[in-house]
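User: quick one, sequence for these C-alpha coordinates?
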Protein backbone atom coordinates (compact mmCIF):
# COMPACT_ATOMS: atom_id res chain seq x y z
CA UNK A 1 0.00 0.00 0.00
CA UNK A 2 1.45 3.36 -1.01
CA UNK A 3 1.48 6.12 1.59
CA UNK A 4 0.25 9.09 -0.43
CA UNK A 5 1.10 11.76 2.10
CA UNK A 6 2.00 11.97 5.78
CA UNK A 7 0.64 13.99 8.67
CA UNK A 8 -2.29 15.54 6.83
CA UNK A 9 -6.03 15.54 7.43
CA UNK A 10 -8.32 13.32 5.39
CA UNK A 11 -9.39 14.76 2.05
CA UNK A 12 -11.80 14.16 -0.79
CA UNK A 13 -10.36 14.98 -4.22
CA UNK A 14 -12.71 15.61 -7.15
CA UNK A 15 -11.17 15.58 -10.62
CA UNK A 16 -13.58 16.63 -13.41
CA UNK A 17 -12.77 16.60 -17.14
CA UNK A 18 -15.07 16.48 -20.20
CA UNK A 19 -14.16 12.81 -20.79
CA UNK A 20 -14.32 11.55 -17.20
CA UNK A 21 -15.05 12.24 -13.55
CA UNK A 22 -12.97 10.85 -10.68
CA UNK A 23 -13.34 11.04 -6.92
CA UNK A 24 -10.72 9.87 -4.42
CA UNK A 25 -11.02 9.70 -0.64
CA UNK A 26 -7.69 9.86 1.18
CA UNK A 27 -7.79 8.83 4.82
CA UNK A 28 -4.79 8.60 7.16
CA UNK A 29 -2.47 9.02 4.20
CA UNK A 30 -3.93 6.10 2.23
CA UNK A 31 -6.22 6.01 -0.80
CA UNK A 32 -9.32 4.71 0.95
CA UNK A 33 -11.91 4.87 -1.83
CA UNK A 34 -11.94 5.56 -5.56
CA UNK A 35 -14.82 6.27 -7.96
CA UNK A 36 -14.39 6.68 -11.73
CA UNK A 37 -16.99 7.38 -14.40
CA UNK A 38 -16.23 7.94 -18.08
CA UNK A 39 -18.52 9.93 -20.35
CA UNK A 40 -20.74 7.57 -22.34
CA UNK A 41 -19.05 4.41 -21.00
CA UNK A 42 -19.47 3.18 -17.46
CA UNK A 43 -22.11 5.55 -16.12
CA UNK A 44 -23.61 4.13 -12.95
CA UNK A 45 -27.37 3.70 -12.73
CA UNK A 46 -27.41 2.41 -9.14
CA UNK A 47 -30.06 4.35 -7.21
CA UNK A 48 -31.85 5.67 -10.30
CA UNK A 49 -35.60 5.01 -10.45
CA UNK A 50 -37.25 3.82 -13.69
CA UNK A 51 -40.62 3.01 -15.16
CA UNK A 52 -40.16 -0.51 -16.49
CA UNK A 53 -42.29 -2.95 -18.45
CA UNK A 54 -42.22 -6.69 -17.71
CA UNK A 55 -40.95 -8.49 -20.83
CA UNK A 56 -40.99 -12.07 -19.59
CA UNK A 57 -41.82 -13.89 -16.36
CA UNK A 58 -39.77 -17.04 -15.68
CA UNK A 59 -41.51 -19.24 -13.08
CA UNK A 60 -38.69 -21.80 -13.25
CA UNK A 61 -36.19 -19.18 -12.09
CA UNK A 62 -38.67 -17.18 -9.98
CA UNK A 63 -37.44 -14.09 -11.78
CA UNK A 64 -38.43 -11.76 -14.61
CA UNK A 65 -36.81 -9.66 -17.31
CA UNK A 66 -37.90 -6.03 -17.34
CA UNK A 67 -37.30 -3.40 -20.02
CA UNK A 68 -36.23 -0.15 -18.34
CA UNK A 69 -34.83 1.54 -21.44
CA UNK A 70 -31.22 0.40 -21.13
CA UNK A 71 -29.27 -1.64 -23.70
CA UNK A 72 -30.06 -4.95 -21.96
CA UNK A 73 -33.18 -6.02 -20.10
CA UNK A 74 -32.95 -5.76 -16.31
CA UNK A 75 -33.27 -8.77 -13.98
CA UNK A 76 -35.91 -8.81 -11.24
CA UNK A 77 -35.86 -11.59 -8.63
CA UNK A 78 -39.07 -12.57 -6.84
CA UNK A 79 -37.62 -11.49 -3.48
CA UNK A 80 -37.18 -7.96 -4.82
CA UNK A 81 -40.89 -7.51 -5.58
CA UNK A 82 -43.36 -5.89 -3.20
CA UNK A 83 -45.66 -8.65 -1.95
CA UNK A 84 -48.93 -7.24 -0.68
CA UNK A 85 -50.11 -10.71 0.39
CA UNK A 86 -47.19 -11.54 2.66
CA UNK A 87 -45.85 -8.50 4.48
CA UNK A 88 -42.27 -9.30 5.41
CA UNK A 89 -39.44 -6.91 5.99
CA UNK A 90 -37.89 -6.81 2.52
CA UNK A 91 -34.59 -5.31 3.53
CA UNK A 92 -32.14 -7.83 4.92
CA UNK A 93 -29.90 -4.99 6.04
CA UNK A 94 -27.06 -5.66 8.45
CA UNK A 95 -25.99 -2.05 8.83
CA UNK A 96 -22.37 -3.04 8.31
CA UNK A 97 -21.77 -1.37 4.98
CA UNK A 98 -23.91 1.77 5.44
CA UNK A 99 -25.01 1.27 1.83
CA UNK A 100 -28.19 3.00 0.71
CA UNK A 101 -29.14 0.26 -1.75
CA UNK A 102 -29.65 -3.46 -1.36
CA UNK A 103 -29.15 -5.84 -4.27
CA UNK A 104 -30.80 -8.71 -2.44
CA UNK A 105 -33.78 -7.36 -0.66
CA UNK A 106 -35.35 -10.41 0.85
CA UNK A 107 -34.14 -13.53 2.51
CA UNK A 108 -34.95 -16.25 -0.04
CA UNK A 109 -36.43 -18.49 2.67
CA UNK A 110 -39.04 -15.80 3.40
CA UNK A 111 -40.37 -15.68 -0.18
CA UNK A 112 -43.81 -17.30 -0.19
CA UNK A 113 -45.81 -15.99 -3.15
CA UNK A 114 -44.57 -17.26 -6.56
CA UNK A 115 -43.53 -14.60 -9.05
CA UNK A 116 -46.29 -15.51 -11.53
CA UNK A 117 -48.84 -14.43 -8.90
CA UNK A 118 -47.08 -11.09 -8.30
CA UNK A 119 -46.44 -9.68 -11.78
CA UNK A 120 -47.59 -10.34 -15.33
CA UNK A 121 -46.02 -9.88 -18.77
CA UNK A 122 -46.65 -6.37 -20.08
CA UNK A 123 -47.18 -4.89 -16.61
CA UNK A 124 -45.65 -1.48 -15.74
CA UNK A 125 -43.49 -1.31 -12.61
CA UNK A 126 -41.74 1.39 -10.61
CA UNK A 127 -38.24 -0.04 -10.05
CA UNK A 128 -34.84 1.05 -8.81
CA UNK A 129 -31.45 -0.17 -10.01
CA UNK A 130 -29.63 -2.02 -7.24
CA UNK A 131 -26.73 -3.33 -9.34
CA UNK A 132 -25.32 -1.92 -12.58
CA UNK A 133 -25.13 -3.98 -15.78
CA UNK A 134 -21.88 -5.96 -15.57
CA UNK A 135 -20.38 -7.86 -18.50
CA UNK A 136 -23.16 -9.63 -20.37
CA UNK A 137 -25.63 -9.29 -17.49
CA UNK A 138 -28.32 -6.64 -17.32
CA UNK A 139 -28.99 -4.44 -14.32
CA UNK A 140 -30.38 -5.97 -11.11
CA UNK A 141 -33.52 -4.09 -10.07
CA UNK A 142 -35.94 -3.98 -7.15
CA UNK A 143 -39.43 -2.60 -6.56
CA UNK A 144 -38.41 -1.67 -3.00
CA UNK A 145 -37.28 1.94 -3.44
CA UNK A 146 -34.49 3.24 -1.16
CA UNK A 147 -33.83 6.98 -1.06
CA UNK A 148 -30.55 7.94 0.64
CA UNK A 149 -30.06 11.27 2.36
CA UNK A 150 -27.15 12.63 4.34
CA UNK A 151 -28.24 11.08 7.64
CA UNK A 152 -30.90 8.50 6.79
CA UNK A 153 -32.15 6.17 4.09
CA UNK A 154 -35.92 6.34 3.53
CA UNK A 155 -37.61 3.11 2.38
CA UNK A 156 -41.24 3.90 1.52
CA UNK A 157 -42.25 0.29 0.87
CA UNK A 158 -41.29 -1.25 4.23
CA UNK A 159 -42.13 -0.86 7.90
CA UNK A 160 -38.72 -0.93 9.54
CA UNK A 161 -36.37 1.25 11.59
CA UNK A 162 -32.67 0.46 11.76
CA UNK A 163 -29.48 2.11 12.99
CA UNK A 164 -26.07 1.55 11.43
CA UNK A 165 -24.02 -0.92 13.45
CA UNK A 166 -21.04 1.37 13.04
CA UNK A 167 -22.74 3.58 15.64
CA UNK A 168 -21.72 1.54 18.66
CA UNK A 169 -22.67 3.66 21.69
CA UNK A 170 -26.04 2.40 22.93
CA UNK A 171 -27.14 5.79 24.30
CA UNK A 172 -26.58 7.42 20.90
CA UNK A 173 -28.44 4.59 19.15
CA UNK A 174 -31.43 5.09 21.43
CA UNK A 175 -31.34 8.86 20.84
CA UNK A 176 -31.41 8.36 17.10
CA UNK A 177 -34.22 5.80 17.31
CA UNK A 178 -36.29 8.23 19.36
CA UNK A 179 -35.79 10.99 16.76
CA UNK A 180 -36.86 8.68 13.93
CA UNK A 181 -39.86 7.38 15.89
CA UNK A 182 -41.04 10.97 16.21
CA UNK A 183 -40.47 12.15 12.62
CA UNK A 184 -40.80 9.06 10.44
CA UNK A 185 -43.42 9.30 7.65
CA UNK A 186 -46.74 7.51 8.09
CA UNK A 187 -45.71 5.07 5.34
CA UNK A 188 -42.33 3.44 5.11
CA UNK A 189 -39.22 2.75 7.14
CA UNK A 190 -35.98 4.55 7.89
CA UNK A 191 -32.37 3.44 8.25
CA UNK A 192 -30.10 5.77 10.24
CA UNK A 193 -26.72 6.13 8.53
CA UNK A 194 -23.35 6.38 10.28
CA UNK A 195 -23.13 10.09 9.40
CA UNK A 196 -26.06 10.75 11.76
CA UNK A 197 -23.93 10.02 14.82
CA UNK A 198 -23.88 13.25 16.84
CA UNK A 199 -26.11 15.11 14.35
CA UNK A 200 -28.73 17.41 15.82
CA UNK A 201 -32.42 16.56 15.81
CA UNK A 202 -33.45 19.31 13.37
CA UNK A 203 -30.98 18.21 10.66
CA UNK A 204 -32.14 14.60 10.86
CA UNK A 205 -35.82 15.58 10.77
CA UNK A 206 -35.18 17.84 7.77
CA UNK A 207 -33.45 14.94 6.02
CA UNK A 208 -36.43 12.65 6.60
CA UNK A 209 -38.90 15.32 5.49
CA UNK A 210 -36.95 16.02 2.28
CA UNK A 211 -36.81 12.32 1.34
CA UNK A 212 -40.53 11.86 1.99
CA UNK A 213 -41.30 14.80 -0.32
CA UNK A 214 -38.89 13.40 -2.90
CA UNK A 215 -40.73 10.08 -2.93
CA UNK A 216 -44.08 11.82 -3.42
CA UNK A 217 -42.60 13.64 -6.42
CA UNK A 218 -41.28 10.32 -7.80
CA UNK A 219 -44.74 8.76 -7.53
CA UNK A 220 -46.32 11.72 -9.35
CA UNK A 221 -43.74 11.54 -12.14
CA UNK A 222 -44.25 7.78 -12.45
CA UNK A 223 -48.03 8.14 -12.74
CA UNK A 224 -47.69 10.82 -15.43
CA UNK A 225 -45.05 8.99 -17.49
CA UNK A 226 -46.38 6.99 -20.44
CA UNK A 227 -43.19 5.28 -21.67
CA UNK A 228 -40.38 3.26 -20.09
CA UNK A 229 -37.33 5.18 -18.90
CA UNK A 230 -35.88 7.26 -16.07
CA UNK A 231 -38.30 8.65 -13.49
CA UNK A 232 -35.67 9.99 -11.11
CA UNK A 233 -31.96 9.95 -11.85
CA UNK A 234 -29.46 9.41 -9.05
CA UNK A 235 -27.16 12.33 -8.18
CA UNK A 236 -24.03 12.94 -10.23
CA UNK A 237 -20.96 11.17 -8.91
CA UNK A 238 -19.35 14.22 -7.28
CA UNK A 239 -22.56 14.98 -5.35
CA UNK A 240 -23.00 11.33 -4.37
CA UNK A 241 -19.45 11.42 -3.03
CA UNK A 242 -20.29 14.29 -0.68
CA UNK A 243 -23.48 12.59 0.47
CA UNK A 244 -21.92 9.16 1.04
CA UNK A 245 -18.21 9.70 1.72
CA UNK A 246 -17.94 12.77 3.91
CA UNK A 247 -17.44 11.99 7.59
CA UNK A 248 -16.09 13.85 10.61
CA UNK A 249 -12.48 13.05 9.57
CA UNK A 250 -12.71 14.94 6.27
CA UNK A 251 -11.11 18.36 6.63
CA UNK A 252 -11.42 19.56 3.04
CA UNK A 253 -12.92 18.73 -0.33
CA UNK A 254 -10.73 19.84 -3.25
CA UNK A 255 -12.30 20.32 -6.68
CA UNK A 256 -10.26 21.11 -9.80
CA UNK A 257 -13.11 22.38 -12.00
CA UNK A 258 -14.68 25.81 -11.41
CA UNK A 259 -18.19 24.96 -12.69
CA UNK A 260 -18.30 21.80 -10.57
CA UNK A 261 -17.04 23.83 -7.62
CA UNK A 262 -20.01 26.20 -8.01
CA UNK A 263 -22.46 23.29 -8.40
CA UNK A 264 -21.10 21.55 -5.30
CA UNK A 265 -21.35 24.77 -3.30
CA UNK A 266 -25.02 25.15 -4.25
CA UNK A 267 -25.68 21.57 -3.22
CA UNK A 268 -23.84 22.01 0.07
CA UNK A 269 -25.65 25.26 0.89
CA UNK A 270 -29.00 23.55 0.41
CA UNK A 271 -28.39 20.16 2.00
CA UNK A 272 -25.10 20.11 3.93
CA UNK A 273 -24.33 23.67 5.15
CA UNK A 274 -21.96 22.33 7.80
CA UNK A 275 -19.51 21.50 4.97
CA UNK A 276 -19.54 24.99 3.47
CA UNK A 277 -16.08 25.98 4.65
CA UNK A 278 -14.53 22.66 3.60
CA UNK A 279 -15.24 23.00 -0.13
CA UNK A 280 -12.21 24.48 -1.90
CA UNK A 281 -11.19 25.09 -5.49
CA UNK A 282 -7.89 23.44 -6.49
CA UNK A 283 -5.97 25.84 -8.75
CA UNK A 284 -2.37 24.56 -8.75
CA UNK A 285 -0.82 23.85 -12.19
CA UNK A 286 -0.01 20.21 -11.32
CA UNK A 287 -2.99 17.87 -11.93
CA UNK A 288 -4.76 17.16 -8.64
CA UNK A 289 -4.40 13.37 -8.86
CA UNK A 290 -0.66 13.74 -9.58
CA UNK A 291 -0.25 16.12 -6.66
CA UNK A 292 -1.51 13.44 -4.27
CA UNK A 293 -0.10 10.37 -6.03
CA UNK A 294 -3.50 8.94 -6.99
CA UNK A 295 -2.66 8.11 -10.61
CA UNK A 296 0.37 6.11 -9.44
CA UNK A 297 -1.85 4.14 -7.08
CA UNK A 298 -4.41 3.50 -9.86
CA UNK A 299 -1.68 2.17 -12.17
CA UNK A 300 -0.48 -0.13 -9.38
CA UNK A 301 -4.02 -1.42 -8.85
CA UNK A 302 -4.46 -2.32 -12.52
CA UNK A 303 -1.55 -4.75 -12.44
CA UNK A 304 -1.93 -8.48 -11.92
CA UNK A 305 1.07 -8.58 -9.58
CA UNK A 306 1.26 -6.24 -6.55
CA UNK A 307 4.56 -6.05 -4.71
CA UNK A 308 4.74 -5.85 -0.92
CA UNK A 309 7.32 -3.71 0.89
CA UNK A 310 9.04 -6.80 2.28
CA UNK A 311 9.75 -8.20 -1.19
CA UNK A 312 6.79 -10.58 -1.25
CA UNK A 313 3.93 -10.13 -3.68
CA UNK A 314 0.31 -11.02 -4.36
CA UNK A 315 -1.26 -12.12 -7.65
CA UNK A 316 -4.86 -11.04 -8.34
CA UNK A 317 -6.88 -12.74 -11.09
CA UNK A 318 -10.47 -11.71 -11.85
CA UNK A 319 -12.97 -14.06 -13.46
CA UNK A 320 -16.61 -13.14 -14.15
CA UNK A 321 -17.92 -13.98 -10.67
CA UNK A 322 -14.76 -15.04 -8.83
CA UNK A 323 -11.56 -13.31 -7.73
CA UNK A 324 -8.56 -15.51 -6.93
CA UNK A 325 -5.67 -14.04 -4.91
CA UNK A 326 -2.35 -15.83 -4.39
CA UNK A 327 0.27 -14.78 -1.80
CA UNK A 328 3.99 -15.43 -2.39
CA UNK A 329 7.14 -14.69 -0.38
CA UNK A 330 8.99 -13.51 -3.50
CA UNK A 331 12.43 -12.21 -2.57
CA UNK A 332 11.62 -11.95 1.16
CA UNK A 333 13.77 -14.48 3.07
CA UNK A 334 13.03 -13.34 6.63
CA UNK A 335 15.36 -13.21 9.62
CA UNK A 336 14.46 -16.06 12.00
CA UNK A 337 12.74 -19.21 10.76
CA UNK A 338 10.43 -20.29 7.93
CA UNK A 339 7.19 -20.03 9.94
CA UNK A 340 8.02 -16.48 11.02
CA UNK A 341 8.88 -15.49 7.43
CA UNK A 342 5.57 -16.89 6.19
CA UNK A 343 3.60 -15.20 8.99
CA UNK A 344 5.09 -11.77 8.27
CA UNK A 345 4.43 -12.15 4.54
CA UNK A 346 0.82 -13.20 5.16
CA UNK A 347 0.21 -10.34 7.61
CA UNK A 348 1.54 -7.78 5.14
CA UNK A 349 -0.48 -9.43 2.35
CA UNK A 350 -3.71 -9.39 4.40
CA UNK A 351 -3.49 -5.63 4.79
CA UNK A 352 -2.69 -5.08 1.11
CA UNK A 353 -5.44 -7.46 -0.06
CA UNK A 354 -8.12 -5.58 1.88
CA UNK A 355 -6.83 -2.32 0.39
CA UNK A 356 -6.77 -3.71 -3.16
CA UNK A 357 -10.31 -5.11 -2.88
CA UNK A 358 -11.58 -1.64 -1.99
CA UNK A 359 -9.61 0.27 -4.64
CA UNK A 360 -10.26 -2.31 -7.38
CA UNK A 361 -13.90 -2.63 -6.30
CA UNK A 362 -13.71 -6.41 -6.64
CA UNK A 363 -16.95 -8.22 -5.85
CA UNK A 364 -18.60 -11.60 -5.72
CA UNK A 365 -16.78 -14.67 -4.39
CA UNK A 366 -13.15 -14.09 -3.40
CA UNK A 367 -10.66 -16.89 -2.67
CA UNK A 368 -7.38 -15.93 -0.99
CA UNK A 369 -4.54 -18.47 -0.99
CA UNK A 370 -2.33 -17.42 1.90
CA UNK A 371 0.97 -19.26 2.33
CA UNK A 372 0.33 -22.35 4.46
CA UNK A 373 1.09 -21.86 8.18
CA UNK A 374 1.55 -24.72 10.65
CA UNK A 375 0.53 -22.87 13.83
CA UNK A 376 -3.15 -22.24 14.47
CA UNK A 377 -2.33 -19.03 16.36
CA UNK A 378 -0.62 -17.64 13.25
CA UNK A 379 -3.60 -18.48 11.03
CA UNK A 380 -5.87 -16.69 13.51
CA UNK A 381 -3.59 -13.64 13.55
CA UNK A 382 -3.75 -13.32 9.74
CA UNK A 383 -7.52 -13.83 9.67
CA UNK A 384 -8.08 -11.27 12.45
CA UNK A 385 -5.96 -8.67 10.65
CA UNK A 386 -7.87 -9.26 7.41
CA UNK A 387 -11.19 -8.78 9.22
CA UNK A 388 -9.93 -5.62 10.91
CA UNK A 389 -8.79 -4.13 7.60
CA UNK A 390 -12.11 -4.98 5.94
CA UNK A 391 -13.93 -2.88 8.55
CA UNK A 392 -12.72 0.13 6.54
CA UNK A 393 -14.72 -1.09 3.54
CA UNK A 394 -18.10 0.56 2.88
CA UNK A 395 -19.22 -2.47 0.87
CA UNK A 396 -20.59 -5.45 2.78
CA UNK A 397 -17.99 -8.21 3.21
CA UNK A 398 -18.31 -11.65 4.79
CA UNK A 399 -15.27 -13.81 5.66
CA UNK A 400 -15.90 -17.53 6.15
CA UNK A 401 -12.70 -18.48 7.95
CA UNK A 402 -9.41 -20.08 6.90
CA UNK A 403 -8.93 -23.71 5.95
CA UNK A 404 -6.00 -25.84 7.07
CA UNK A 405 -4.43 -25.18 3.66
CA UNK A 406 -4.50 -21.42 4.21
CA UNK A 407 -7.45 -20.76 1.89
CA UNK A 408 -9.85 -17.98 2.89
CA UNK A 409 -13.31 -17.82 1.35
CA UNK A 410 -15.08 -14.46 1.46
CA UNK A 411 -17.68 -12.43 -0.39
CA UNK A 412 -17.86 -8.74 -1.15
CA UNK A 413 -21.03 -6.99 -2.28
CA UNK A 414 -20.82 -5.92 -5.90
CA UNK A 415 -22.99 -3.17 -7.39
CA UNK A 416 -20.68 -1.92 -10.15
CA UNK A 417 -17.96 -3.20 -12.45
CA UNK A 418 -14.48 -3.47 -10.94
CA UNK A 419 -11.71 -0.97 -11.64
CA UNK A 420 -10.05 -3.39 -14.09
CA UNK A 421 -13.31 -4.08 -15.95
CA UNK A 422 -14.06 -0.32 -16.08
CA UNK A 423 -10.65 0.86 -17.33
CA UNK A 424 -9.39 -2.16 -19.28
CA UNK A 425 -10.58 -4.55 -21.99
CA UNK A 426 -9.64 -8.13 -22.87
CA UNK A 427 -6.47 -8.52 -24.92
CA UNK A 428 -7.43 -8.55 -28.60
CA UNK A 429 -4.58 -10.96 -29.37
CA UNK A 430 -5.23 -13.69 -26.81
CA UNK A 431 -8.98 -12.85 -26.64
CA UNK A 432 -8.87 -12.55 -22.86
CA UNK A 433 -7.44 -16.02 -22.23
CA UNK A 434 -4.19 -14.62 -20.91
CA UNK A 435 -2.08 -16.99 -23.01
CA UNK A 436 -1.43 -18.17 -26.59
CA UNK A 437 -0.29 -21.53 -27.91
CA UNK A 438 3.44 -22.15 -28.23
CA UNK A 439 4.93 -22.06 -31.71
CA UNK A 440 5.78 -25.76 -31.35
CA UNK A 441 2.14 -26.54 -30.51
CA UNK A 442 0.87 -24.76 -33.62
CA UNK A 443 3.61 -26.33 -35.77
CA UNK A 444 2.66 -29.83 -34.63
CA UNK A 445 -1.03 -29.08 -35.26
CA UNK A 446 -0.11 -28.23 -38.86
CA UNK A 447 1.88 -31.46 -39.22
CA UNK A 448 -1.02 -33.53 -37.87
CA UNK A 449 -3.49 -31.88 -40.27
CA UNK A 450 -1.25 -32.64 -43.24
CA UNK A 451 -0.82 -36.23 -42.07
CA UNK A 452 -4.61 -36.67 -41.80
CA UNK A 453 -5.05 -35.45 -45.40
CA UNK A 454 -2.57 -38.07 -46.60
CA UNK A 455 -1.41 -38.24 -50.20
CA UNK A 456 -3.44 -35.91 -52.41
CA UNK A 457 -3.47 -36.76 -56.11
CA UNK A 458 -1.82 -34.27 -58.45
CA UNK A 459 -0.33 -32.19 -55.63
CA UNK A 460 3.44 -31.65 -55.85
CA UNK A 461 3.85 -28.77 -53.37
CA UNK A 462 2.00 -27.68 -50.22
CA UNK A 463 2.54 -24.14 -48.95
CA UNK A 464 1.68 -23.25 -45.35
CA UNK A 465 1.12 -19.56 -44.67
CA UNK A 466 1.78 -18.95 -40.97
CA UNK A 467 3.21 -16.59 -38.35
CA UNK A 468 6.97 -15.94 -38.48
CA UNK A 469 7.56 -17.57 -35.08
CA UNK A 470 5.89 -20.80 -36.23
CA UNK A 471 7.95 -20.88 -39.44
CA UNK A 472 11.16 -20.31 -37.44
CA UNK A 473 10.35 -23.23 -35.13
CA UNK A 474 9.59 -25.56 -38.05
CA UNK A 475 12.92 -24.93 -39.75
CA UNK A 476 14.87 -25.04 -36.48
CA UNK A 477 13.20 -27.42 -34.03
CA UNK A 478 10.75 -29.28 -36.29
CA UNK A 479 12.98 -29.98 -39.27
CA UNK A 480 13.05 -33.76 -38.71
CA UNK A 481 9.23 -33.91 -38.71
CA UNK A 482 9.14 -31.82 -41.88
CA UNK A 483 11.49 -34.25 -43.68
CA UNK A 484 9.46 -37.23 -42.42
CA UNK A 485 6.19 -35.82 -43.83
CA UNK A 486 7.73 -34.85 -47.18
CA UNK A 487 8.86 -38.46 -47.67
CA UNK A 488 5.54 -39.92 -46.44
CA UNK A 489 3.32 -37.61 -48.52
CA UNK A 490 5.65 -37.57 -51.54
CA UNK A 491 5.62 -33.78 -51.97
CA UNK A 492 7.48 -30.61 -50.97
CA UNK A 493 6.16 -28.70 -47.94
CA UNK A 494 7.01 -25.00 -47.70
CA UNK A 495 6.32 -22.74 -44.70
CA UNK A 496 5.81 -19.12 -45.78
CA UNK A 497 5.59 -16.15 -43.42
CA UNK A 498 2.30 -14.22 -43.45
CA UNK A 499 2.71 -11.17 -41.15
CA UNK A 500 -1.03 -10.53 -40.81
CA UNK A 501 -1.80 -13.94 -39.31
CA UNK A 502 -2.24 -14.55 -35.57
CA UNK A 503 0.38 -16.89 -34.08
CA UNK A 504 -2.30 -19.61 -33.79
CA UNK A 505 -3.60 -19.19 -37.38
CA UNK A 506 -2.36 -20.87 -40.55
CA UNK A 507 -3.50 -21.48 -44.14
CA UNK A 508 -2.83 -24.63 -46.22
CA UNK A 509 -2.53 -24.25 -50.01
CA UNK A 510 -1.84 -27.12 -52.47
CA UNK A 511 -0.34 -26.72 -55.96
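Assistant:
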Amino acid sequence: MLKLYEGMASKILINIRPSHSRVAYIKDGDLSELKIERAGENKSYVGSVFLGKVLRVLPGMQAAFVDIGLQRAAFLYVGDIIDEKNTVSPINWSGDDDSPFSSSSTNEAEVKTPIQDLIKQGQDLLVQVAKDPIGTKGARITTHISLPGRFVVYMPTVDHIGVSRKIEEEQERERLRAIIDHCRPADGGVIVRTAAEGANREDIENDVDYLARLYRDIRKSYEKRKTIGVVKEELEMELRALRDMVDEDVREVLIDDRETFKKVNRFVNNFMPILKNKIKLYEKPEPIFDQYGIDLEISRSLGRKVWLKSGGYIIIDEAEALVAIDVNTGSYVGKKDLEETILQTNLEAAKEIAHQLIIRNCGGIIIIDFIDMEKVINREAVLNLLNDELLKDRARTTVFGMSSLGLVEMTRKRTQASLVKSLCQPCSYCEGKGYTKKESTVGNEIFRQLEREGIVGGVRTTTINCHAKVADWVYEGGNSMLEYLELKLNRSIIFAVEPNLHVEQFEVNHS
